[in-house]
Amino acid sequence: MDTFKFRREIPFIDQGRPWENEDLYSKLVELNYYGIPFQYQPKEMESPDILMAWWQEIGKLKVSFKEISWRNQNEWFITIVEPPVIGVGGWTGPKPFGK
What CA–CA distance (Å, rounded) separates 8 from 99? Predict the structure, then answer.
């Protein structure tokens, strides 16, 4: 994580679609390794939390990640998002990104 120490921005090669971007994937995986939670952004289809969930769905990311959300300044939540399992919670397998 020394690479990111004291940085406010973490640059990545912005090339192609985010869900296919290996540089972005490696940066998010490294942040996840260090326990950094990703902000819950359900309306932003290319946000880190959505990308991490997609990579879990297709089997590329085989570990859990943390998602942070809040209702107000006194109600913050950290949710651990586990990789999905076919048959659990009605999940039938991966679908195309964004569907």
Answer: 32
